[in-house]
Write a structure and sequence with these properties.
14 strands, Acyl-CoA_Oxase/DH_mid-dom_sf (chains A, B), 58% helix, homodimer, 3-methylmercaptopropionyl-CoA dehydrogenase (chains A, B), globular, Butyryl-CoA Dehydrogenase, subunit A, domain 2, oxidoreductase (chains A, B), two-stranded antiparallel ribbon, flavoprotein (chains A, B), alpha+beta
């Protein structure tokens, strides 16, 4: 299995031509993100991803993690890699310099994180969760909490977790029962069990900071009675040194389909009198804080979908160029590399074009987040935040569904060898399969998109996005040639389908909420396909502009061809999805439960 | 994890209403397949599948098979189950009574085999390969070979294999190098290595009959120089008793993503002077014999897709009815079983409707095969054989692609629990993932459909199928109510899309073979979706007829609702696929290899 090679030219193209790195670098606080600096950072990240993390991907899959008496042992090499990772300053790349971060824009951080996901998704989860915890503390923690914990989390010398799920409380956070009782010193005693805690226990860092959703005495029922508590594995003394072990333990590690190197812990708090915790933010406001962590995590899981897809594509491509089998249709009688067979090309192009669409959309959203956070103009911030809010469920939901399919296609390109574990293609499918589930299933993302992001504002944010898509359509119409005509035709159908589906949802959401909800996932897929098509169209237009400016080369031609493939093979599905959104409810809801 | 419960009522509905068991039972040699007898057989098979095979499914997955010094040990319980399986006469259910079979129609055999696949796909592969070997011998073996081997293979006391693939010869059989040299006594010495040999070695039976594709001295190059040789694990004396061990051995067993209980062997022949083999059929005619085995196997792998989908659906449904999580949209504030949530219903209906479409199509094709084999009228035989030939790649290709998606959806219904191996949902995905690869990948099936089944006869067989679909459309138009109107609307678009795509293929195949080949898999999917829609429409019409005849019940209502779901959620994709078939080639073929 070939090691991961970061697609630096593709990344640079998207950063500059689609996401507007130049404009992001003009935002307050982003001044250091010059093109040269970013290029150097990406090159160094690519080296680390390819040389250190990628070779450990299969090692981690085979060895997995082991739990003995509450002590979790990571796979060989992970400890040393993690040390290099934090020594290199990678963990805090996008964090506030006030806490030791590098202060780079989220856009640059997204590109770097894509590399970690591609190279070794299981490894990358540790940092992802640590950064989520840091973000929640940054937003909601007290000054003392920030001072005590943020520098460690930003550096990565301590890691963080999200403790949300309980056996009876999965997608339904309102069912959480974990409880926290106040002590006289202002701290809390925490009791309860949490499941599916990624990196809940490990041997990579000297301390683990658990952020735990729990209920204080007398809290309201449901999600409005959840509070966020900070519960360190080792208590921290006032001078910042580590104190005694807290009353919490890893009960077991799950035996999962994939991401074997990511320890998924069952955590028990308070078996011995109560785990010491500290309230983060106000009582009963835990959900909001958790959403901060979760939104960052959802975008990051979308990047996992992108990263795994890229890795699966690279591996399938390498195999397709090497594997000699069968003769060319209409060609000579000698065997050729399978990349020459039309169906293998179709599979590779299907993977490649969706990878490029996802990358463009991810970086586009990351740039919008930077603008939403840092732009001096409030209206500009708001406009961009609305775009980000609209797109985050698409990035999480659509990217990860794509990743499962793309990893599966990657196996298919390998034929029988793909089914043999030693080949490594199956691992990508096993790893990808969690991404549509955790941090909110695809159904939850689709529900978020439908109700909070489209219905709540009467379709305004989506309408704004569609208006921008129509500007791109107009540009396509001005562009000569069969490729642009094909892209225009499919994209026009796609935008119309999205508008039709969204109008239906807005019109019927109130009086037929169950019927509209049937269309949530088809709508999410439609939105993903069309948004991806928008990005591919912009990519083709940018390539044409650069070619016209005298920079014509095969890379830029490839962008146009790939956009055309996407139009006729991916966007072509859009009208069918609109049909399902607008007509699909009676068939889905009419059966009684006993008729299943 | 619940054990498998055979869906006997669904099966009976399809057997009688779609596949026409009554007409099949009137065919010469099928007279014993009365409704009562078939019902009794299915009930007994259901018991064996649920009580014996199903509990071993997870056992086999966990234990896997082990190979030590060429000896393969099957998982615990498999030996005893296999003994019961052959003692019950299940292996030869559809075989010729002249060789000890039960002589039941292929239609009945298909329903019974579906159960084995659902209950324990890895177990069922042994019998599938044995029956393939028996069929090849029946067609091409000498009288002596038949007398010596068929009774044992039909009984299952000896098992069979297909030895085709070599490291350099996967989809391309022309690259096979295994060679056979004649001995003076008329036998052959065989030399070479074969890979991916299912049940190539095991401890279930006293002998294993390998059918091996090899080249005789001076054979032409490519597929026209392949001969089929019968190579027993233990040589057989003239009196039928077992003689010395042959010169062949299992080198190793592959470490696969799934079907862990099915030993996938690397076989080495002739390390010690040559394995003794016997030519089956004429020299250099091995490909034709192999196609007999392969066509039967392709249909059977389609049944695997159906069976795994049914099993995944049953497990997801059981979970959705048990798992209480979240409150109902627009309902009370109490938590409900997740089956009430619209998106969970959508997933379950998506699984259920495709399972029903696949079952109907599979049994329809099995019945057509019975007619093609046994009908007294040659024109009727020919017409049905053309239908079977057209549909076999669809059954293999579309069912198995569905199975991967349905098994994945089954995991999704389980949420986080689905990713934990102990839940058992992930096994279905791991097991299903081989089905799109072995016995010819989806790309190979699509190529077979496009070139041999559609292009070669200028679209005649497909046109005949479409004409029958249009008869069903006319019946739908005569049926009152919103459900039938919806089914008609989507099916009409589907048939038109299929006709458009097929016309394009027929018109352009000669002058643009590479471009047309890009659309092969989309065409296969389109054909599957529309053929499945045809079956669902016929199912709805039959349910309406039975209801109108005074048998109205919720089961029959359910058939109509499920057909409507299929129309708006599955058939809706058909026009988009026709778009891809007719427009998708430029984007797929324009890139140079270096541009990937």
């Amino acid at each position: 299995m070939a090691e991961y090679l970061a697609p630096l030219r593709d990344m640079a193209f998207v950063l500059h031509e689609i996401a507007g790195l130049g404009r992001v670098a003009q935002l307050p606080g982003c001044e250091e993100a010059s093109a040269d600096v970013v290029e150097a950072i990406l090159a160094e990240a690519a080296r680390f991803a390819g040389a250190v993390l990628s070779p450990l991907n299969r090692v981690g899959d085979r060895a997995g993690t082991r739990c003995h008496d509450g002590v979790v042992t990571m796979p060989p090499g992970f400890g040393e890699a993690y040390r290099q990772f934090i020594d290199g300053g990678w963990n805090g790349l996008g964090c506030d310099p006030a806490h030791g971060g590098q202060g780079l824009p989220g856009l640059v951080s997204a590109a770097v994180q894509e590399m970690w996901k591609s190279a070794n998704m299981a490894f990358s989860l540790c940092s992802m969760l640590t950064l989520g915890a840091a973000e929640a503390l940054e937003r909601f923690g007290s000054a003392e909490q920030k001072a005590m914990f943020l520098p460690k989390l930003v550096a990565g010398s301590w890691t963080g977790t999200m403790n949300i799920t309980e056996p009876q409380a999965g997608s339904d956070l309102g069912a959480i029962r974990c409880r926290a009782e106040p002590r006289v010193d202002g701290s809390y005693k925490l009791f309860g069990q949490k499941i599916f805690i990624s990196y809940g226990e490990h041997d990579l860092a000297e301390n683990i900071i658990h952020l735990v959703l729990a209920r204080l005495p007398g809290a309201p029922e449901g999600v409005k009675g959840l509070s966020l508590l900070l519960v360190p594995k080792f208590l921290v003394e006032a001078d910042g040194t580590l104190g005694p072990r807290n009353d919490l333990r890893c009960v077991s590690i799950e035996h999962k389909l994939g991401i074997h190197a990511s320890p998924t812990a069952v955590m028990s708090f308070g078996d011995d009198g109560g785990a010491t915790g500290h309230l983060v933010g106000p009582a009963n406001a835990g959900l909001e804080a958790m959403f901060v962590m979760m939104n960052a995590a959802r975008f990051a899981v979308g990047l996992e979908g992108l990263g795994l897809s890229e890795r699966a594509y690279q591996q399938a491509l390498a195999h397709a160029k090497e594997r000699v089998q069968g003769r060319e249709i209409g060609g000579a009688a000698t065997a050729v590399p399978i990349v020459r067979h039309p169906d293998v090309r179709r599979m590779l192009m299907s993977m490649k074009s969706r990878v490029e669409a996802m990358r463009a959309l991810a970086y586009f959203v990351a740039a919008a987040q930077d603008v939403a956070t840092r732009h001096p103009d409030a209206a500009e911030r708001q406009r961009n935040q609305a775009c980000v809010d609209l797109m985050v469920p698409v990035v999480k939901g659509w990217f990860t569904e794509n990743a499962v399919d793309i990893a599966s296609l990657g196996m298919q390109v390998h034929g029988g060898m793909g089914y043999i574990e030693e080949t490594g293609a199956a691992q990508h499918l096993r790893d990808a399969r969690i991404t549509t589930i955790y941090e909110g299933t695809t159904g939850i993302q689709a529900s978020d998109l439908l109700w909070r992001k489209i219905h709540r504002d009467g379709g305004a944010a989506l309408g704004a996005a569609c208006a921008r898509m129509r500007q791109t359509l107009a540009e396509l119409e001005q562009s000569a040639g069969a490729d642009f005509a094909a892209i225009h035709a499919a994209f026009a159908h796609g935008v119309a389908a999205l508008e039709e589906a969204a109008a239906f949802v807005v019109a019927h959401a109130t009086q037929d909420s169950r019927g509209v909800a049937v269309g949530a996932v088809p709508l999410l897929n439609l939105m993903g396909i069309v948004s991806g098509g928008w990005m591919m169209a912009r990519s083709a237009l940018a390539a044409r502009r650069k070619s016209d400016a005298g920079n014509a080369d095969s890379f830029l031609e490839g962008k146009i061809v790939t956009a055309r493939f996407y139009a006729d093979h991916v966007l072509a599905a859009a009208p069918g999805l609109a049909w399902t959104v607008t007509r699909g409810s009676p068939g889905a809801l009419a059966l009684g439960e006993e008729q299943f």
